[in-house]
Amino acid sequence: MKTILHTANSRGHAEHGWLNSYHTFSFAGYHNEERHSFGLLRVLNDDTVAAGMGFGKHPHDNMEIVSIPLSGDLHHQDSTGRDKIIKQGDVQIMSAGSGIAHSETNANHDKEVKFLQIWVFPKKRNIEPRYDQRTFLPENRQNQLLTVVAPDDDHAVWINQDAWFTLGNLGKGFETTYQTHLPENGIYAFVIKGDVTINGIALNERDGLGITETEALNITADNDAELLLMEVPMKLKN
């Protein structure tokens, strides 16, 4: 097993007034040669957007873009005509494919919105842009790991990659195991809330841990915790 630890306070940080963003990997004005990505996981941004503000319409192509609201509501619009509200408990994915333009703004005018913005390199390039969004009830991930993004699960949002995202709300003292889907994949664990120990490594809120060359993770919640696991290929396949 190989690991790489990214503590919460080691992340890049950008404060724009309307946007407060923490970058696990190099992004925009934050550049760190040693933290460009974890395999095909390219971006993990922890964003807080002020009331009524947001990202204006801008283009993307050939990237799988996942948004996970942690509090508040996001308003999504894109060049295909989609106009959606993404709420806490929802997971949204946009396959940018051959090209799409979208905007993400705070749908609330009286409170900020917090969300994770995650980019994964695609398996197939230049596919027709697509969009998927689902609601995952908190009770369905209480003391269990719930798959929310997958290439092969009708109950999850579909991703154009051999990647699986899993969410768990774990009570203090709860123990569980995560089994890797593909042996060549790596897993990036991100602690949304609380404290957990994974394969003997203690993690605190907003810490990230990349793990490779392992078939399973042994997870213990040291306090009530919310955990995101992102299993991704470590390199592009020809």
Second-tier CATH architecture of the largest domain? Sandwich
- Work out the helix count: 0
Shape verdict:
globular
Mean of residue pLDDT? Answer: 96
What features would you describe in this structure?
The chain is mainly β and 238 residues long. The protein has two domains: 12-135, Jelly Rolls, CATH 2.60.120; 139-233, Sandwich (Jelly Rolls). It is built from no helices and 22 strands. It has strands at 2-6, 12-15, 19-23, 41-49, 54-60, 64-71, 73-78, 83-87, 90-95, 100-106, 113-120, 130-135, 145-150, 157-158, 164-170, 175-179, 185-193, 196-198, 201-203, 208-212, 216-221, 225-233. The strands form four sheets. The chain has a seven-stranded mixed beta sheet with strand order 1-20-17-22-15-13-14, with no helix packed on it. The chain has a seven-stranded antiparallel beta sheet with strand order 2-3-4-11-6-9-12, with no helix packed on it. The protein has a four-stranded antiparallel beta sheet with strand order 5-10-7-8, with no helix packed on it. The chain is globular and about 45 Å long. The protein starts with a strand and ends in a 5-residue tail after the last strand.
